[in-house]
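can u pls check wat happens w/ zinc ion
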Amino acid sequence: MKIILAGARLIDPTKKIDAQMDILLEEGKIAKINSALLKSTKSKDAGKVKVIELTGMIVTPGLIDMHTHLREPGFEYKETVASGCAAAVAGGFTSIACMPNTSPVNDNRSITEFIRRKALEADLANVYPIGAISVNSEGKQLTEFWDLKEAGVVGLSDDGNPVMDAALMRRALEYAYSLGLPVISHCEDKNLSGDGLINEGYYSTILGLNGIPSIAEEAMVARDIIIAEFTNTRVHIAHVSTAGSVRLIRDAKKRGLKITAETAPHYFTLTDEALQGYDTNLKVNPPLRSPQDVTAIKDGLTDGTIDVIACDHAPHGRTDKELEFEYAQNGISGLETSLGLSLNLIREKILSWPELIAKMSANPARILNLPKGALSEGSDADITVIDPHLKWTVDIKAFCSRGKNSPFSRRAMQGKAVMTIVGGEIKYAAPSLKL
Ligand code: DOR
Ligand code: ZN
């Protein structure tokens, strides 16, 4: 079936296109992009083409979340590959990269192949596994990078855990660079974060919760930058949460180093002040920080220091979260609120539309070397349709994700993905969109 997406505002930052255009999808690919496609096709192909009228909507390259935790194998009660993919397409994401902290850890070919097979069966979003840097993510012995690459991983990370051993990180950056695989660094000095639970500051003091100082993150960001510089390799800094990290990355980029970085919507939306109710849905690692940190994150997004918005989708079950604050697990189920929260950046004039779409599509594609993130004739028809005006309220019960752990429950949002097309097939369509 051919599909024409007609009348929408098409935004593709890679082509500097921001104009009303029609798109013809054929056999899973983008066949044509043209401002008057509908008129030229109407007469001869009538009946054979499904025309989807999208006036007032925004059409973008399929969104990519490069930092998602699917919990399969091992923690299927939190999320399966299939439920995570359903959450992805409902949130507007056509592709996700999934972190290796499953059980067993994705530190070998058989786990990578298992995840990819599950994703094919789910047949919703594209899933790109990230392999572990070290065996069982224990930070002691490197995994078989080449074998993991052959099995299909697109990057390496011990996310959830830092690589504390600087010598191991050095070897990881060197080997990974020679194979063209990005290393994604969870920056946390465990000696500094210790038994901390929330950001170290005023609120950790008055709430009586142990603090995680911002330097726990920054010391590792600095370390990874100097290792990348020394070895002339690259590193991607995951979930940047502090002003100091933004400054270090900005300075490194100015010096021409191959550093890229991401932040998550909760780090530019919330501060540690929100923790006063001890809501464990706000417990996340790195922790929510101060208003000064939030301002710095926004500045980093505006000036390009932060390349990517990735939601660090970390679904958990009730038994992981409905506990005393100390015992609850870290993480926010983010795929279904990420775009809605990120659209606030446009209203706040932090980012333009093309800048936001680049950080949620072209930039993660570039960092992970994916043939995605642009709307080109001949490329895979991975497309997100956004209704920029749609007002909706976050309803965790309606999440496709098994993880209902969202601090954004009942939050009013404006703007939503209303249709998600993967490989030319409509994998998600919001009820508000009359097809
Ligand atoms: O909050 C987090 N949750 N941070 C991490 O680094 C890991 C993640 C998880 O796997 O739940
Ligand atoms: Zn992490």
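Residues 7 and 55 are 5 Å apart (CA to CA).
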